[in-house]
Structure formats: C-alpha cells, structure tokens
Amino acid sequence: MLIGPQNSTLHVNHVRSRISQAALAAGRDPSAVTLVAVTKGQTAQSIREAATAGVTDFGESYLQEAGAKMDELAGLGLGWHFIGGIQSNKTREIAERFDWVHSIDRLSIARRLSEQRPYHAAPLNLCIQVELVPEPNKGGVPPSEIGQIAAAAAILPRVCLRGLMCVPPQQPNSAAERAVFARLRSLLEELNASGHKLDTLSMGMSGDFESAIAEGATLVRIGTALFGSRSRRG
Length: 234
Known about the structure:
Blueprint: H1 8-25, E1 34-38, H2 44-52, E2 57-60, H3 63-72, E3 79-82, H4 91-97, E4 100-104, H5 107-116, E5 124-129, H6 146-153, E6 159-165, H7 174-193, E7 200-202, H8 209-214, E8 219-222, H9 224-227
Parallel strand pairs: 1-2, 1-8, 2-3, 3-4, 4-5, 5-6, 6-7
C-alpha cells in the first residue's frame, strides 16, 4: 500500500528516528549516516514531498524514469544517486546528471564515466558494488577482485572513488545481517590499509538498515519504509 502524501513528513521523521537510534546504539554520530531515499517507481510529487520533509538525497535505478523526474525537480538542489545496473550505452547521461554512482561492477564502466563526466562538474562519486553472497543475475565484484579494480578506479581523473556498496539477499536474523555487512566493512578497511582513503559504505535497505548502521554504514538506501510499496515497477 502506498503511503499517503499527508503522511510523508511523519514517515521521514520515523525513519530518521530509527537511523538515529541505531547509530547511537552503535556508539556512532547519527549525522554520519546519510538517508538516500530510493524513489524508483515513485512520482516526482512524492520526491518533492520527501524533500519538503528534509530529505536531500535520492536514489534511482532506471535512467529514463529518473531523467524525467530530475528535469521536473531541477530547481530543488537535490543530490542524485544512481544505484542500478549500468549498461555501457547509458554511461554518458549518468556521468552528466548524477552526483553518485553506487553500482560500479567493472572497471570499463568507471572509465567511461570518468571520460564522460563534464569538466565543469565536480568529480563523480563512485562506490564499487561487491558480490558478498553470489546470486544469479545480480551485479557485483567478487571480493578477490576489489583491490585491482579499486587501484585502477582511484586514479581516474573525473571520478572520485569513495567506497563500497552491497545488496545482499535477505538474511534470517539480525546477527546474520550484521555478519554480511561486517564483511563489507572489513573489505573497506583492507583497502584503506593498502593506501586508499575511502569513507563510504553504502549498505542497508528498509528491512535491514539498522544492522547495516551497526556495522558502519554511511549511506542507507531506503524506499519502502518511506513510501510504501511501489505502485508500479519503473
């Protein structure tokens, strides 16, 4: 069921409260965790209402759908995160229009984004998507290949490698959730020990973001808890 627009502020505040409680329980500053509202399948009006309620960062997975909403909301100064799979023929528009890309799963995509990022724009923030749990038809870099890709992506001129991202399958309990997210944190720590200066863990969604925050998430990607079920798949 969709969450009515009259309840947008209520739901945003509720999610922010849960984020704060999870951060404080982990001994972390709640301001270190950024809420990225996942708005694929949502209308521009829903995004506008969430922005009015204080949300500044929005995640989209489908370029054509995202572009129309970005055009309509251009005056709001929102931060846009691309969180879906990337085809090579779509990189130019992503490079030109987004602030973040969370779903880098091969070096060729990072190179294209760097080449196509406009020179007047700030460097495009990138996260490498990691395949922590092998799943058919889901993107991600095997942990054994992260070091090689990170080293090459970090020296590209028009992008800035910021960290790692994961989309693990549903786990049976919070302890299992935390174990998966702890693996991503450990991989980021290994990269930093080898000389990188990464500061971002994009992990946690509506059903598990509190476990992700306990393990160091800095970006949580939340859709259903903010907007309810999508009215359509976009």
